[in-house]
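User:
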Amino acid sequence: MRTAVAGSDPGGAAVFNAEMLRFATHYGFRPVACRPYRAKTKGRVERAVSYLRHNFFYGRSLSDLEHLNAQLAAWLSDTANARVHGTTREIPRDRLHKERSHLAPLPGNPYVPMVTLGRRITKDGFISYNGNEYSVPEGLVHREVHLRATLEELHLFQDGRLVARHPVLEGRGHRRLAPGHRRYKNSSHPPTQEHPLGNLQNLIEVQRRPLGVYERVLS
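Assistant: Predicted structure:
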């Protein structure tokens, strides 16, 4: 699946995408790809999904997420982890107790998922992400940036250099112009969404001449 494997090398080995490798590095494991169209190479991993669906979800009435979690905890304790497993022939909670000493501790800091995309800069100096627009500073060399997004923040790069940072906007149809991304000559009031041209008096320079020049023109 593309969320894990980006492609394959000339020898047919899987090439994992960068986010998958970052996730694996954070939690300290090495991903192994199954062979395409060979269901048996997946072992019994997907069987657990069917077991959960048929033995827990079917026939239950659930009022909310808290109720679901409470029923699931009771089912795991009394049924799923108390039975004799069909493959290992052991009780799962007893097997976990034996294996616990061989398990590495979880990292102290949580994993932060990150989306990596390429984005083209619009003529008015913005990029689009999830239905909202974010500004880029003036004077960039190229018309494209590399976007890396977490759930809370966007980072925009060009040629490996961080050029902009934005908080992720909620909803859709919004536009964010970061301070300092536009240069307005002789103006302390940059344009806004309501007034795209801002204060015209601050944008237009009028050449000053002596009054005698105008008198000669009118005479």
